[in-house]
């Protein structure tokens, strides 16, 4: 099973700043099958990024993903108050699929 | 518009059985894998398993194998998650979610249901 470790646990930033979230895998993620999800309080998760760097339909270009192999990054430019959420990475190349433990983004 | 509508909240006692549902609409139900994800109170997301409604090919996470059963009825575009004997530790929100890509086993979860809260308490 591929273990995904996200850091930091919590990120507290001001509106307009850039957030950089990390996801590290215990082994190489096949074909960069790595996704990022956003879960706002009281809501279901929403797909942001798939294939490590492709934005899902309707996702603003403030959100970008990068990385390969075992190290992946989600970057949120120009933070907005609505970006308050927990962000999860997930690998979907190995079995079973696994999620990271999440990074909480707080807006100051 | 793709929609996944899940059944309502449930309150059950330990040892009882339960089957919750997830009805898909706005797309070809048999063309996309549907997965189930658990979220225990205040915790993160856990991938439970997925099913391909066209032929009911089902894959489970080892953590959930034997603990739950995933099924689908393509005639009514509905997927199910069921327990034969609930435990207090099954208390959680359960989400169904459809794969983003058609027919692809290797795909992220692109469309999510609203979640079903299952509470197991004596």
Features:
heterodimer; A: 108 residues; mainly beta; 7-stranded mixed β-sheet; 4-stranded antiparallel β-sheet; 50% strand; B: 122 residues; 0% helix
What's the N-to-C terminus distance of chain B?
A: 40 Å
Order of helices and strands of chain B: EEEEEEEEEEE
Distance between the termini of chain A: 36 Å
Please outline the major beta sheet of chain B.
7 strands, mixed
Shape of chain A: globular
User: What is the largest interface, and how many residues per chain?
Assistant: A-B, 26 and 26 residues
Assembly type of the chains comes to heterodimer
Rg of chain A from C-alpha positions?
13 Å
Which percent range fits the helix content of chain A?
A: under 10%
Mean pLDDT over all positions of chain A: 97
According to DSSP, the number of beta strands of chain A is 11
Would you list the SSEs of chain A in sequence order as H and E?
EEEEEEEEEEE
Low-confidence stretches of chain B: none
How much β-strand is present in the residues of chain A?
over 45%
Low-confidence stretches of chain A: none
**Largest sheet composition of chain A:** 7 strands, mixed
Query: Approximately how much helix is present in the residues of chain B?
Result: under 10%
Q: Report Rg of chain B.
A: 14 Å
Output the structural class of chain A.
mainly beta
Average the pLDDT over all residues of chain B and give the rounded result.
Answer: 97
Overall 3D form of chain B: globular
């Amino acid at each position: 099973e591929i273990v995904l470790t996200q850091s930091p646990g919590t990120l507290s930033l001001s509106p307009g700043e850039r957030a950089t979230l990390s996801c590290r895998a215990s082994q190489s993620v096949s074909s960069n099958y790595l996704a990022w999800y956003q879960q706002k309080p009281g809501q279901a998760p929403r797909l942001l990024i798939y294939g490590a760097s492709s934005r899902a339909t309707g996702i603003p270009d403030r959100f970008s993903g990068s990385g390969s192999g075992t190290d992946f990054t989600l970057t949120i430019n120009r933070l907005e108050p609505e970006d308050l959420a927990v962000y999860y990475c997930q690998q979907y190349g190995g079995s079973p699929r696994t999620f990271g433990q999440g990074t909480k983004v707080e807006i100051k | 518009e793709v929609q996944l509508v899940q059944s309502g909240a449930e309150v059950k006692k330990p040892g009882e059985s339960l089957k919750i549902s997830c009805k898909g609409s706005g797309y070809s139900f048999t063309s996309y894998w549907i997965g189930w994800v658990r979220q225990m109170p205040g915790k993160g997301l856990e991938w439970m398993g997925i099913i391909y409604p066209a032929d009911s090919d089902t894959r489970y996470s080892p953590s959930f194998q034997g603990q739950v059963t995933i099924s689908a009825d393509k005639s009514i575009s509905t997927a199910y998650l069921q327990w034969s004997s609930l435990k207090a530790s099954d208390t959680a929100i359960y989400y169904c979610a459809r794969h983003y890509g058609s027919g692809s086993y290797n795909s992220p979860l692109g469309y999510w249901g609203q979640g079903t809260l299952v509470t197991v308490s004596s």
